[in-house]
Amino acid sequence: MATIEKDSVSGQNTTGHEWDGIKELNTPLPKWWVYVFWATVLWAIGYWVAYPAWPLVNGYTKGTFGYSSRGELENELAAQKKARSAWLSKIEASDVGAIEKDKDLLRYAMAGGKIAFNENCAPCHGVGGVGAFGYPSLADDEWLWGGELADIETSVKFGVRNTNANARASEMPKFGADGLLKPEQITAVTDYVLSLASKAPAKGSAGETVYAENCAACHADDGAGNKDLGAPALNNQIWLYKGSKDAVAAQIAKPKHGAMPAWSERLDASTVKMLAVYVHNLGGGK
């Protein structure tokens, strides 16, 4: 039987265990630590009772307080929606022109439009509407379908080349792929288009003749474009698919056609209006 005795060096009782002449001291935990430990145990039990804690087969224990983080979030969103409803109702009841004329509504629409733009439009058009390869810039003064506020709202609402019956639609012929022009004609008209872009049209060239017969109807004689048809201007250095000779020739031979969703099918009316106002105020709206 183990013998408990007092250690002569430390003055503490031993446990009675001894190994190779080494005696184990009985050193209990400090009482304050024990009290804290049991307090945390009691706290944990109380937490299990008061709050959701234990998973069950078809759910979980709800707790006596009936609290849930999801419910708290839903309450916060409901409160936020209520606070925003007055502004959104005004925006929904106003046309985009009236929104821009009302300083308070404009401020709110710009804030809401920026959020909606970053969530839905920036992946293609870039933050701030700077554009990207194949996606037009929205921060300059060049518009395929017009830069007036009403034009922008229509583009946002119905989109481009999608299944919506009111979508913007245009299609450039495949002059090379469909054999409408010979390779040498494509080369000639490419050179002429590049001369238009550099503000030095190659008058009297073979390319000018090909352009007049095949391109001017949509892009205008001087390359100014036609916003009613969604035909881009060719008399500047703004290119959707790059402006090298090879890139322009490839677009003439077998053009690329982008598409844009009809945001009225995905977003509510007030958000569409805020988007239109935001884009119009990026710096390129007329």
TrEMBL record:
Chain ranges passing through the membrane: 32-54
Keyword Signal among UniProt keywords: no
The protein's annotated pathway: Energy metabolism; oxidative phosphorylation
Gene Ontology CC entries for this record: plasma membrane
Described function: C-type cytochrome. Part of the cbb3-type cytochrome c oxidase complex.
Subunit field text: Component of the cbb3-type cytochrome c oxidase.
Name of the protein in its database record: Cbb3-type cytochrome c oxidase subunit
Species of origin: Paramagnetospirillum caucaseum
